[in-house]
Design brief:
alpha/beta, 14% strand, globular, binds 2-phosphoglycolic acid
Length: 261
Amino acid sequence: MTRQRLVVANWKQNTLTAAATSWIRAVEAGLDNVPLPAGLSVAAAPSYVALAACRAALAGRLTLMAQNVAAQDSGAFTGEVGPGMLIDVGIHAAIVGHSERRSLFHEDDDLVGRKVASALSAGLSVVLCVGEPLAAREAETHEAFVLGQLEAALAGIDVSAADARLVIAYEPVWAIGTGRTAQPEQANEMHGAIRTFLSNRFGAAGRDRSILYGGSVKPLNAAQLIAQPEIDGFLVGGASLLAEPFLAIVRAVASDGTVSP
Ligand code: PGA
């Protein structure tokens, strides 16, 4: 199995329906002019309430994912949206464990692990986010921190060789929304450590996981980052809100880091 490439637009709590659907149309039209190599896909993660409108606007070049998903499928959990509800509206993927969910909404490793397990068993694809805070980077404990998050989130998960539904996103917290990107070599080093962990844990199926980088990815740094051998794509926040910068990032990935028009 070869590693898949993936670029995801994470809109966070932004973008009302009209802007969301025009973004979908603009990006899909833009993708018509980008020769996407086999194995590269592009996805957008709108808010829950914009998912249905975005899905209706899709022509099929993009896929959609939710920004979050509940650990439980249904029940007395006011405000939550479970995996079955996403599948019911045609959404088959979710981001889990984003650092904003962890830090602002108190999602701990245990909850993130339960979300990963229930989403995968319901049939969703999962982009599992991990990443260290600045203090861990400065104390040089960043690798242990991230591998600890993975260990907790993947306890009890079996990734079989046929299962490409688990993607990891490494997003150092100090690089998210700060304009401060990890150096390509720093990101590559952490991706390598993550891949070794996955490979020790799941064999070839672990080694072949796609590992995305996130944290202030922009058209200007995308080519350098994607040129790193361990980086398989991006989870993009701020630079994904407008169609054109997002397309420029997709073009950088499509051309394997060699051209960034
Ligand atoms: P950013 O966000 O690109 O704005 O840093 C990335 C993310 O939070 O996924």
